[in-house]
Amino acid sequence: MKITVNHIICLVSVLSFNSCKRTPSLFQFLPSSQTGIYFNNKVVEDDVHNVLEYMNIYTGAGVAAGDVNNDGLTDLYFSGNQTSGKLYLNRGNFKFEDVTEKAGLVTSRWCTGVSMVDINGDGWLDIYVNVAGSSKFGDMHNLLYINNHHGGFIESAAKYGIAETRQTMNASFFDYDRDGDLDLFLITNPADEMVTGVNTIHERMVNGESEGSDILYRNNGNGTFTDVSKEAGILIEGYSLGAAISDVNNDGWPDIYVSNDFLTNDILYINNGNGTFSDKLEECLKHTSFASMGNDVADINNDGLPDIYTLDMLPEDNYRKKMIIPSASYDRFQLSIQKGYEPQYTRNALQLNNGNGTFSDISFLAGISSTDWSWSALWADYDNDGDKDLM
User: Fold this and answer.
1) Do 173 and 113 form a contact (C-beta atoms < 8 A)?
2) Within 13 Å, how many C-alpha atoms sit on residue 129's CB side?
3) Is residue 16 part of a domain?
4) Within this chain, do residues 161 and 200 fall inside the same structural domain, yes or no?
5) What is the pLDDT of residue 338?
6) Residue 145 carries which DSSP code?
7) What single-letter DSSP state applies at residue 343?
8) Cα separation of 253 and 246, whole Å?
9) Distances (CA, A) of 342 to 282, 290, 389
10) Which residues form the domain of 352?
């Protein structure tokens, strides 16, 4: 039988096609009609709600996953900006039921991040919701919904002392002082100050007096919290969009990495083990992203050391680079250094832990320096091959 080159090409093409066809998908899309999840965080601009009043109007809200009714299934809570947050109970087989109203969880504030946490240690998950937006949007107190064990929740933020109003974007619950209960770290982003110029170069504020300083609440162990930000050394100004809790230096104490937008530097708060933190960014990192969005900390190379990844807005496409990224100014860069800021560059930064208290940015080598306008990163082993993947 005569076999031509064309026959071989056709055979290889068919085999390749069949091989690709058999490759299983890592994820499967499930439509709302199947899951029952119809939440839509739609934002409609008007005379009050617009980007001039609040530049973070399109930042989005949040989602939390956890078993709020202790039935062994993971439930979902979505926070909303102009729409109420929604609690969906998992009924099994990827089917969910909206129980927001009967659970007492209807909201009418500009809600941002959300966390599920057993804040009172009773074995039932509670829900903490951050609130931001312009002061013209209405009530800006954060919300804490305590689980009543019977399918309902009771709003108790003021009772617990954590009804914060300083435009918080997200919350991290962790035991910073290792006394056995969960404390609360809040990142702030007072972006309705657009009229003052968020990128105007000024002396770096490190005294805790800025509206953009983050907030640390200590759990008193009696159902209340106390703001200990200043005494704990949480003092530095920032327009925060992300925080990651990790033992960065492997000393047994949880540290905090905060990614900050605009002029303000990222912050690496190292836990001193005595109830205080010190910013060690200058000592540990040579530079950071400029307009840092979200961040995540994970051991990306399996060497036992936590690495840090921050997101920025640098596109890979040359045309988009010219369209959305302003030209760098040497004078502006030097002036910011004189005012106390660390070097910042417009790109993602993957800070590889060197194991000696320093990090090296390998984002270009890793091929993840330019992912356009990216908001959030999450490292996990999605395909169970032992390596950290990035979403």
Assistant:
1) no
2) 31
3) no
4) no
5) 84
6) E
7) P
8) 8
9) 7, 10, 29
10) 176-184+194-391
